[in-house]
Specification:
Pfam families: DYW_deaminase, E_motif, PPR, PPR_2. The protein is about 65% helix and about 5% strand. It is mostly helical. Among the domains are: about 100 residues, Serine Threonine Protein Phosphatase 5, Tetratricopeptide repeat (Alpha Horseshoe), CATH 1.25.40; about 140 residues, Tetratricopeptide repeat domain (Serine Threonine Protein Phosphatase 5, Tetratricopeptide repeat, Alpha Horseshoe); about 130 residues, no CATH class. It has a six-stranded mixed beta sheet. It has a two-stranded parallel sheet with strand order 1-2. Helix 22 packs parallel to helix 24 and helix 24 packs parallel to helix 26. The chain binds one DNA strand of 10 nucleotides through helix 10, helix 12, helix 14, helix 16 and helix 18.
DNA sequence: TTAGGGTTAG
């Protein structure tokens, strides 16, 4: 495979260093939030000498009460205070404490916390700093809010007075377990803060997506304290989150200025930031500048190319990474599986699957979820189910991947059953789960069940249906011929109907050949998406199906006037590790004659099973060339080529850059029946699966 | 001194 790698030298080190105007450029972050900007820059050193005082000032300005140290909770009442003072001497607990430390050291956090229960229940033990440190590690390892509350409350009731190190560890414990409100209180009330304290709270804010607050604290820190490479790396991540490349560039220049431009963490954050901000060239530059290319560096640049849709380049980088001898990790495999699902064949993915297991990441939740998605997308639902069943732990995303697989495979009832099993296993569904299950109902025409599930969304699961859920239901109503109800659903939606919803109604109108409603929906769509070709094409089809050829020709003229043209559509098939690409009506392939003869004989064969070839003329002004294009669509040519050049009975996989048309859909369904082949036709957003004459098709949103 | 940072799946 010939792969060209995009690599531009658009920035240089000198340019970066000389463009330093930090931190004034950070104002840009707050441009959309002037409130922050106001109070960020109003203060000066003279007014509030200590950043901690400044934070108090912020709180006061916002009408908040200054925070007072929380009274230490005590299990004792005033009446037994005397008794407590008398029994103040703490019991030694060397055995339990050292056991807790050992368990935490071996990552056996759950057991460490089970042992901690003895300390909690009996009380009065002399617990040392190293044990508290181990308990903090256990809480972070488990990410359990309940554990954090238990440990923290024990620290307070046991009169633990943390030093700077332990204060930071306790802060980190809250941050890592997502308890940002408590973490912020702890940070504000810290008697002393050092670089680690600042980095911890700022990184926590960035983790939860509170970028503005992160920048606000960063500016305070910038003014009063030194910030290291870790801080810069975190703020580069915040710039990526805000998609503000100019701010990211300034942080890049700050890093170079302070001599941390080649720091591993800064470099990786830069690669990620540049690619997320839309400049893959700069990301590549940052990667090239890395003195030592680490696993994360490679992962970041591969993720960058994948994000921009440069799947081949991403794969090429993966080969380079593998050849360079750098260790691949579960991030690498997760990404490669995802890239494979867009680009490569099932065989290739199986190799990646084997590599995943060989490298010891066979149980990784993310990589396995990517595999479930991959096999689902390629119509290998049994394989997807196999991977899913062997996963030691699953999350909502894993369940969603398989429900989508079932739905698109045409197994609507099974998708609904899986959804119900998910609920029984107390896994919380999210809006994607509902999209998957409603879509499954739509494809399998399970109207009653779909309607019930749609209603249960807000009633039982407190998830507000979004436009795509409405679009699914409109499609479902359309299939039942309930166009009035579908229209009523659009009008009754609690938000302004989106293009997707009108498009669903337009499709429903086409299916039911309702010209009036179709025109209405199309007009709405023209207003919203005047340049979208497919909207015109659907209306054109409605006119055509209603026998209104003159109006259909009028739509075609509008298309021409607007300069909207069909992009060249093509289909390709991989045979013997070589891709063969076909355009509609294409006569450039060396086996052209054989392929066209095969198409003709297949059409003849399937016409015995009820296939009616598309009418010879769609519109009055279709010329001979266009006619050939209409009769020999690229997917038919690819299927014919596949049947000629592959073993009898082996499955065929066709990939294409467009949606399959109804004619090819019907034709290939029957071809699968008469040739007893399994045929998967797929494009980037949907696939059509044919086996023994049955078919399923679907969308991925 | 310890502690804090970068990349992945539906």
């Amino acid at each position: 495979m010939e792969i060209s790698l995009v690599c531009y030298q658009s920035i240089s080190l000198d340019k970066i260093q000389n463009s330093f105007r930090f931190p004034s450029s950070i104002h840009e972050v707050f441009r959309t939030k002037p409130l922050f900007s106001d109070y960020c820059f109003r203060f000066n050193r003279r007014k509030c000498g200590n950043p901690c005082d400044k934070i108090k000032c912020f709180s006061l300005e916002q009408g908040l009460q200054p925070r007072r140290p929380k009274p230490k909770p005590s299990r004792n009442t005033d009446s037994d205070l005397k008794e407590t003072e008398e029994t103040h001497v703490k019991r030694p607990s060397v055995g339990i404490c050292s056991q807790i430390e050992k368990l935490a050291f071996c990552n056996r956090y759950r057991e460490a916390l089970e042992l901690f229960e003895i300390l909690e229940l009996e009380g009065g033990f002399d617990v040392g700093l190293s044990t508290y440190d181990a308990l903090v590690s256990a809480c972070i390892g488990l990410g359990s809010v309940r554990a954090v509350k238990r440990v923290f409350s024990y620290m307070i009731s046991n009169g633990f007075e943390p030093d700077q190190y332990m204060s930071n560890r306790v802060l980190l414990m809250h941050v890592k377990c997502g308890m940002m409100v408590d973490a912020r209180s702890l940070f504000d009330e810290m008697p002393e803060r050092n670089l680690v304290s600042w980095n911890t709270i700022i990184a926590g804010l960035v983790d939860v997506g509170d970028y503005f607050e992160a920048f606000r604290l960063f500016l305070l820190m910038w003014e009063f304290s030194d910030c290291g490479s870790r801080t810069i790396a975190t703020m580069i991540r915040a710039s990526a989150g805000l998609e503000l490349i100019s701010v990211g560039r300034q942080l890049h220049s700050a890093a170079v200025k302070f001599g941390v431009g080649e720091d591993i963490f800064v470099s990786c954050a830069l690669i990620d930031m540049y690619s997320k901000c839309g400049s893959i060239e700069d990301a590549q530059w940052a990667f090239d500048e890395m003195p030592e290319k680490t696993t994360v560096g490679w992962n970041s640049i591969i993720a960058g190319y994948a994000l921009h849709g440069y799947s081949e380049e991403a794969l090429s980088m993966f080969y380079e990474m593998r050849d360079s001898g750098v260790k691949m990790d579960h991030f690498t495999f997760s990404m490669i599986i995802r890239i494979s699902s867009r680009l490569a064949s099932v065989e290739y993915a199986k190799q990646v699957h084997a590599g995943l297991i060989r490298h010891g990441f066979g149980l990784d939740i993310v990589a396995n979820t990517a595999l479930v998605d991959f096999y689902s997308k390629w119509g290998r639902v049994e394989d997807a189910k196999h991977v899913f069943d062997r996963m030691p732990c699953k999350n909502t995303i894993s369940w969603n991947a398989l429900i989508v697989g079932y739905g698109n495979h045409g197994w609507g009832a099974e998708a609904v059953e899986l959804f119900e099993q998910m609920l029984r296993e107390k896994m919380r569904p999210n809006h994607v789960t509902f999209l998957a299950v409603l879509s499954a109902c739509s494809h399998s025409r399970l109207f009653e069940r779909g309607w019930e599930i749609f209603q249960s969304m807000s009633r039982d699961h407190k998830i507000k249906p979004r436009a795509m859920h409405y679009a699914c239901l409109i499609e479902l109503l359309g299939q039942e011929g309930l166009l009035d109800e579908a229209f009523a659903l659009i009008r009754g939606a609690p938000f302004k109907p989106t293009a997707n919803m009108w498009a669903a109604l337009l499709t429903a109108s086409r299916v039911n050949v309702n010209l009036e409603l179709g025109k209405y929906a199309a007009e709405k769509l023209y207003g919203m998406e005047p340049e979208k070709l497919s909207n015109y094409v659907v209306l054109l089809n409605i006119y055509h199906q209603s026998g209104k050829l003159k109006e259909a020709a009028g739509v075609l003229q509008t298309l021409r006037r607007k300069g909207l043209r069909m992009l060249p559509v093509c289909s390709w098939i991989e045979v013997n590790k070589q891709s063969h690409v076909f355009l509609s009506g294409d006569k450039s392939h060396v086996q052209t004659n054989e392929i066209y003869e095969k198409v003709d004989s297949l059409v003849h064969e399937i016409s015995k099973h009820g296939y009616v070839p598309k009418e010879k003329t769609l519109l009055p002004d279709v010329d001979e060339q266009e006619q050939r294009i209409l009769l020999y669509h690229s997917e038919k040519l690819a299927v014919a080529f596949g049947l000629i050049n592959t073993m009898k009975g082996s499955p065929l996989q066709i990939v294409q850059n467009h949606r399959i048309c109804n004619d090819c859909h019907n034709a290939i369904k029957l071809i699968a029946l008469v040739t007893r082949r399994e045929i998967v036709v797929r494009d980037a957003s949907r696939f059509h699966y044919f086996k023994d004459g049955s078919c399923s098709c679907g969308d991925y949103w």
